[in-house]
Amino acid sequence: MKKHSDTYRRELRRYVLGLAFAVLLTGAAFAAVLWHIASPPILLGLVFGLGLLQVIVHFHFFLHIGLKKSTRDDLQLILFSTLIILLMVGGTLVILMNLRHRMM
Amino acid sequence: MTAEERLHPGLNLHHTDPHAHAAAVGPLFGFWLFLMSDAIIFALLFATYGVLLHGTAGGPGPEGVFHIGSIAIQTALLLASSFTFGMASLSMKYGRGTGKLFGWLAVTLMLGLGFLGMELHDFTTMIAAGAGPDRSGFLSAFFALVATHGLHVLSGSVWLVVMIAQIKVFGLDLRVKTNLMRLGLFWHFLDIIWVGIFSVVYLHGLIG
Amino acid sequence: MTTLQKKGRIMTETHDLWHLLLGNLSLDALPTYSMVAMAGAAMVVLGVLSVLGLITYLRKWGYMWTEWFTSVDHKRIGIMYVALAMVMLTRGLMEGVLMRLQQADAVNAPGFLAPDHFGQIFTTHGTIMILFMAMPFLTGLINYVMPLQIGARDVAFPVLNSISLWLTTGGAGIMMVSLVLGKFSTGGWSGYPPYTEAAFQPGVGPDYWIWAVTLSSIGAMLSGINFTVTIYKHRAPGMRLMDMPLFTWTALCTSILMIFAMPPLTVATALLALDRYLGMHFFTNGMGGNMMNYANLFWLFGHPEVYILILPAFGVYSEVISVFSSKRLYGYTSLVWATMCIAVLSFTVWLHHFFTMGQDANVNAAFGIATMTIGIPTGVKVYDWLLTMYRGRVRFSVPMLFALAFLVSFVIGGMTGIILAVPPLDYMVHNTVFLIAHFHNMLIPGLLFGMIAGYQFWFPKAFGFRLNERWGRIAFVFWVAGFYVTFMPLYVLGLEGLPRRSQEAFNAGFEPLLIVAAFGALLLLSGLASLFVQLWVSVRDRDRSRVPVGDPWDGRGLEWSLPAPVPEYNFASLPQVQGRDAFMTMKEKGTAYRHPEHYESIAIPMNSALGPIVGLAGGVCAFALVWHMWWAVIAGLVVAWGAVIARSFARNTERIIPAENIAAQQGAWLQMARDARAVPRELEFTPENKGLAEVVT
Predict the structure, then answer these.
(1) Where are the alpha helices (DSSP H) in C577-658?
(2) Across the A/B interface, how many CB contacts are shorter than 8 Å?
(3) Is this model's pTM higher than 0.90 or not?
């Protein structure tokens, strides 16, 4: 345990920092909405942006994923999954909104 | 960093237990793949929610049914549980003996069950108020998305109980460590999905 | 209370008890509404009873359980998958024949199949052929061949492999049970609501469909994960990704597609189930439902699915064309990139399945262009295959015949695909039999011929003796002629306006071509029968066609470097690989058939009952969901998950094969290789061929 104490403290700090950032980002998002600090469209963008940032925080601090650290296979998989999710969700929303628009 | 030193997602045991680290590579990659497929399921449930946002059929919309206080507490509980699982992971990696590990796992379980309890309470309140999943397309989509996440948290909680039992029976052998690492990926993944849920469903709903 | 009242109460309580136990199941579920349906039910019952009876009579239950059902060996599992596929192909093809016969008969006449029954048949035909014939067939081939090609001892998760097999079998069981009890959905294999909602089909039909599909898709997704991890993490030392055989490359892309394409299906069917069982409103008429989202979700799955079906066939063709042209595959890099492009692009085109649903021309155009783009990498592959044959020494073996038929026919079908990719043209032929002709044009010469070619190609490796060439050629003629005679008329009929899924036609002008098509279906049936005859004849004559040394075709990949049949541990020592066509390189360098430096004991996974248990529990759960036997639903889930959790407590899961045994086996085989005559290709189909190929320098 002694010889690992440095790495232990480093890893511990990652989790604590991750928690701190996550709390900040979550709090900011909730506060922004509760205090109506901007118009709805901007507020929406802000909430989504803070959410996206927090997802990155989770990936980095809790899942220890990084461009230099992670294997190429895992990074490629994340990239591919992101692409597929964007295609599927984006495509769904575009198509269904288009259909709704034409039905109005 | 050479190719061999690159790490898989989640906690890595390369320094402390190279044998377990090598054995875990395949199972963790496989589980990561499974999580990607799970991510697609959630993504499509989010998309369906977006499609059915206006399908309230004259019934309650988001403003009518979401309680920000409860959501804030649930968010705090789940986020805390992610942190406590991280502590459990560190305890597995660096600790001597399993005492602290049990402690952290138990706390994680409590937080997870607390989250579930509150979510269940919210659901029953909504259903009692006539805002159940059969009321409208919008509510169906809401319940499908949030309850699927809840079912995942429930499965994770059952898994936690199983792991606690396995640590008692086997100690921290190879398979137990691999399974704990996979559970860790699962648990953090669920918190990531929750970030999406409170942003896209609850906060979005309250913005109007 | 009077005696009569008491009796009435007891009867109600007994009735309630039966209802609790059996849900909605009752004697009414038997298909007495049609003679054809009764015949189908009888065939299932008789079939099951004869198989069970035969195994009992031969006292082979122990053997079946320990050697096959609980095996976690990828080779055994692969063979079982292919066997399942052949059984389901038989049913699916018979259903196709029934439909062709009905349509030939029912021009301004009712025919012999009532509309409701016809509806069930086209639904089961599609569902079975895609999910319970094609998927198991390709999963079986990949299971058997891919680990051998990459120099591995098994797939990454052998027990999970078994679970996948048995879940798929459970789903197939649901399909077969639906012939005996209740009716199947009449909503087509795509199951569109609101027609499949409880309001329009309150019976068990769509529920059968939903749960059979669910079992199949879980099995497929788990297989996808298994194969991907195997290919990424279990390759032999020295084998880089760009050294892998094309069949393994297509297996990898197929597996990744499985992982990402099954979730949309899971979501679509789950939401439909929620609508049907819990009264929710995802796809209902009104109450905020959006039925168009179903088509969107279903085809997000459906389009990548057809690429899951075709990519392994492309892999087979790459192997077959290269081996039977005695030539290295032309343009390996371009073939790999083309495969990856096809895989990625397959996620960008799904809207072409519903051009007519109402979105505007710009959206249609974007997806139409994306659809046409997929033709480009496919074309690259066709040219690569042609150039492989060019200046090669082509041998017209049965696999090669199927590959040649594929090259011509698939291009024709691809052209009609380009026609369909143009939205205004699609508006003209959408939901006509033109579309039926197109996708059968892709699936039969594409997928099915590929699977048959793969089966013929690798059969000697799996069983140690060659299949009968003559009956293979007879089958080939029937299959190719059958395909053209059945489906070319449908292109014409579709352009003339005959809608798909029609139980009756009202234009006498359709009759001649429908009769031709029906005749074609009988040719296809003869093709299938010929394959069964071939198998029987081959088994009968197996002593004359044994190829124990293991390389009957002068193969190029590592799978041909092993004895035939392959020993359970695959490789006595893991090969060191350098470059592509690893085994051909060894043969040319003279380093094939050598003893390794030393033999080591090998640990292989023990058998496991988890697969059959999960499959059975899953099947029971699915059946119970269909008939609303809630106690059995819970029981099935508890057993399945309980077994998985119990398995996670298992620790003693491997057995050791001692080095001496391996050395003895290998020694005997290498001696056989030394004693055997190396045959030139002219003697490939003669008893002289013991599986040792003459090296041509």
Answers:
(1) 582-589, 610-627, 630-648
(2) 133
(3) yes
Which of B43, B191, B207 lies nearest to residue A44, judging by beta carbons?
Answer: B207
Give chains near A: 3+ CB pairs under 8 A: B, C
* Mean pLDDT within B168-185: 95
- The residues, any chain, with a CB within 8 Å of residue C339's CB and separated by 6 or more, are C246, C249, C250, C253, C311, C314, C377, C381
Residue type, C467: L
State the burial class of residue A27 (Cβ atoms within 10 Å of its Cβ: 0-12, 13-18, 19+): middle
Alpha-carbon distance C369 to C380, whole Å? 18
Q: What is the pLDDT, as a whole number, of residue C276?
A: 97
The token pair that represents B100 in the structure block: 């602290």
Residues of chain A in contact with residue B75, where contact means CB-CB under 8 angstroms, are 26, 30
Nearest CA to C267 out of C226, C350, C210, C344 is that of C210
pLDDT at C492: 98
Give the C-alpha distances (Å, rounded to integers) separating C360 from A100, A101, C294, C303.
11, 10, 18, 21
User: What is the distance between the alpha carbons of residues C654 and C602, in angstroms, rounded to a whole number?
Assistant: 10
Give chain A's radius of gyration (CA, Å).
Answer: 19
The answer for C 184-223 residues in CB contact with A (under 8 A) is none
**C-alpha dihedral over A12, A18, A20, A21, to 10 degrees?**
160
Q: Residue C246 and residue C283: Cα distance in Å, rounded?
A: 42
Q: How confident is the model at residue C264 (pLDDT cuts 50, 70, 90)?
A: very high
Report yes or no: A71 and B6 within 8 Å, Cβ to Cβ.
yes
The predicted pLDDT at position A3 comes to 59
> Collapsing DSSP states into helix, strand and coil, what is residue C693?
strand
Q: Is the pLDDT of residue B3 over 50?
A: no
Which residue type, as a one-letter code, is found at position C455?
A: Y
Going along chain B from its start, the domains and CATH numbers come out as 40-207 (1.20.120.80)
Nearest 5°: CA angle at C251, between B12 and A89?
70
Question: pLDDT tens for residues C121-151?
Answer: 999 999 999 999 999 999 999 999 999 999 9
